[in-house]
Amino acid sequence: MYTPDLYKNENPEEIRTFLKENSFGILINQTNGKLCATHIPIELEIKTEGKEILQGHISKLNPQTEGFKENDQVLAVFSGPHSYISSSWYDHENVPTWNYIAVHVYGRIKIVDYETSVDQLKKLVDKYEVHSKNPVRVEDLSAKTMREARGIFGFEIEIDEIQATKKLSQNRDDHNYKNIISELEKTENPQSIAVAKEMSKCRK
C-alpha cells in the first residue's frame, strides 16, 4: 500500500485497536492465475505463546480456497472511516482530497482442523452477541444446526507485515484542520462524522 511518510501509522497499539474494531475485512489471494477476494470477518487473536495472528473462516464451496494449496500468501484489507474533503473548506486555493484509515496485513494462511474452527466460531459469536438481549451461544446450538459448520474451513494467518495508513489532513495548519473537522461534523454523514472524531483525537 502506497503511504507517504506523513500518513504512516506505526503505533502497534493503535493498529491493534483498529483491527479489533474494524474486523470485517477483505481476504485476497491468487487462485488459478486470478486475483480472488472475499468479504468476511477476520479477527486478530493472540496464540497461547503470545504471537498475534488473524483468524476466520470461509465456505468450502468458495473457489478461492483452491489457491491456498498452491500459494499460502494472502493479503487481508481492513477499512475504517473515510470521507471526501472539499477544498472549499480551506482558507486558500487547493485541490479536494479524501481522508481515510486503512490497514493491510500480509501473511501466510493455513487451514485448521474442525475443532479449532468451532472454537473460532464460539469466540466470534460471543464477541458480537455480547450486547444482545437474548445472546446466541454456539455451545447451545443443536447437532443439526452445527452440521453447517462442516461446510466451512477455519483458517489462521501468520502475520508477515502490516502496513497502516491514517490520512487525516495532517498536512494542514491548525486553522484549516479545525475547519475541516467543523465542516465534516455539519454533513450529518456517519462516515464523515467518524473521520472528524478521529481527527479530533490526533490534534487537540
UniProtKB/TrEMBL annotation:
SUPFAM superfamilies: FMN-binding split barrel. InterPro entries: Split_barrel_FMN-bd, TR_PAI2-type. PANTHER family: PROTEASE SYNTHASE AND SPORULATION PROTEIN PAI 2. This is FMN-binding negative transcriptional regulator. It comes from Flavobacterium potami.
